[in-house]
From TrEMBL:
This is MFS transporter. Keywords: Membrane, Transmembrane, Transmembrane helix, Transport. SUPFAM superfamilies: MFS general substrate transporter (SSF103473). Gene3D superfamilies: MFS general substrate transporter like domains. InterPro entries: AmpG_permease/AT-1, MFS, MFS_trans_sf. GO terms for cellular component: membrane. The chain crosses the membrane at residues 31-56, 63-83, 103-122, 129-149, 169-191, 203-221, 265-288, 300-320, 327-348, 354-380, 392-413, 419-440. Belongs to the major facilitator superfamily. It is a multi-pass membrane protein. Its main location: membrane. It is found in: Membrane. One of its GO terms (molecular function) is transmembrane transporter activity. It comes from Bradyrhizobium sediminis.
Length: 454
């Protein structure tokens, strides 16, 4: 058989070139900026969450109180209330020096550093109320930073870089969480090994995390203001401050609520990550109760957990690019629910390093996939740069309801049922979100959204 000239001249390395192009997008400056801001967003969450719970458990605080501490995440559910201020108002000095989004970024990060340092000075054993207040301040400043980072990400990335940006953001976000969980635990152990007391060791561990927030600050200073944000700012420059706030708030709500099946979509946003949050609230206390040491948990979270997070983040980006939005949501929703069975199995096996590694890997891998796809869905719902921060904050605040309120009783459930049954229940709590997903799919909700746009 003779070959045609076209076949003879066809470059055999074309498939590899397409792979190079696919990976090259992750090295684009805008994507790298989003990656570093994702780390900055993920860093403080565990400091008022799972890491704080380990500190409290070591201090002798009971499981019921630990479970109730999920309520300090309330600012993540209410941040949409002050998001219009971020969209509409200028921060004196900061906005003039850095711009609309970057000014708020730097301002929120400065306040976040102060809040973490304040939490570092508390003592869970003696004053849980002050610990709660400190954690509440960290959550408030962290959620404010999230408002700005989310708006910056959605506005700065063109459609061709959205999938890479979301994958990078989520992977870096979870790395930030790993640093503020496993990293803090290692630091506390290292400080204790020098002879200082446990309370002081925890204080210095938190102080180091406060210093690491500066990574986000340097990134914000190195970034450029999104073009869409600058145009939106120019369009509203003549309006009074109060008028801008009202327009940002009203526009964000009205534009979303006039869509078909808006209330069902909002319920889906609340429930999609609930299975992840319900089990995640008690993962650290479970591992400690099972008999693992703090360093066992930290080593596995930082090692295989970090690898699983990175792989899961980029796998989620691939799924988001390869499949439709609704198919991707099915994949992420089912995987993140089933991963809880790994912890039920661990509870049955007992203290086993390999079993812990498998469970942590499954949780981080599937959680990263689910989060990337969920971020893609939320981004598809936000289309107007005049109130991106408000609209995205509303959606992520609703998503935080599962983590903050619905999961606040997880400690009491674990006490009543035992760990094995608790993690089986964690799988079952995903069923309502999957039912809603099927209902919205049948009514064409996801077809109307189209591809992720800016």
């Amino acid at each position: 058989m003779t070959s045609t000239p076209e076949a003879a001249t066809k470059p055999p390395s074309a498939p590899r070139a397409s792979w190079r192009e696919a990976w090259a997008v992750y090295l684009q400056p805008r994507v790298l900026i989003v990656l570093l801001l994702g780390f900055s967003s993920g860093l403080p969450l565990a400091l008022s969450g799972s890491t704080l719970l380990v500190w409290m458990r070591e201090a002798g605080v009971d499981l019921g109180t630990i479970g109730l501490f999920a309520l300090v995440g309330t600012p993540y559910t209410l941040k949409f209330l002050w998001a219009p201020l971020v969209d509409a108002l200028h921060v004196p000095v900061f906005t003039h020096a850095f711009g609309r989004r970057r000014g708020w970024l730097v301002f929120s990060q400065v306040l976040l550093i102060g809040a973490i340092l304040l939490l570092a000075l508390t003592d869970p054993a003696r004053s849980p109320l002050f610990v709660a207040l400190g954690a509440l301040l960290v959550a408030t400043m962290s959620s404010t930073q999230d408002i700005v980072v989310d708006a910056f990400r959605v506005e700065s990335l063109p459609e061709s870089e959205q999938a890479a940006g979301m994958a990078s953001y989520v992977a870096a976000y979870r790395i930030g969480m790993l640093v503020s969980t496993a990293g803090v635990l290692f630091l506390v152990s290292a400080f204790e090994s020098t002879g200082i007391g446990r309370s002081s060791a925890w204080m210095w561990g938190y102080a180091v995390m406060a210093a690491m927030v500066l990574i986000g600050t340097v990134t914000a200073l190195a970034a450029t203001e999104p073009g869409q944000s600058a145009r939106a700012e120019a369009a509203t420059r003549g309006e009074a401050a109060l008028s801008r706030v009202m327009h940002a708030a009203a526009g964000a709500f009205s534009e979303f609520l006039v869509r078909k099946y808006a209330w069902a979509a909002l319920a889906f946003v609340v429930l999609f990550k609930f299975t992840d949050a319900f089990s995640g609230t008690m993962t650290a206390p479970f591992v400690i109760d099972l008999g693992f040491t703090r360093n066992d948990y930290a080593a596995i979270v930082k090692g295989v957990g970090l690898a699983a997070t990175l792989i899961g983040g980029f796998a989620g980006g691939y799924v988001a690019r390869r499949y439709s939005l609704v198919a991707s949501l099915w994949i992420g929703g089912v995987l993140q629910a089933l991963s809880n069975l790994a912890f039920a199995w661990l509870a049955h096996v007992g203290v086993n390093q390999w079993a812990l590694a498998v469970a942590i890997s499954a949780e981080n891998f599937t959680g990263a996939i689910g989060t990337v796809i969920f971020v893609a869905y939320l981004s598809a719902l936000c289309q107007n740069p005049l109130h991106t921060a408000t609209q995205y904050a509303l959606l992520t605040a609703l998503a935080a309801v599962g983590r903050t309120y619905l999961s606040s009783g997880a400690g009491y459930v674990a006490t009543a049922t035992g760990w094995t049954l608790f993690f089986v229940i964690s799988v079952l709590v995903a069923v309502p979100s999957l039912i809603l997903l099927a209902w919205l799919q049948r009514r064409g909700h996801f077809d109307e959204l189209g591809p992720v746009k800016v």
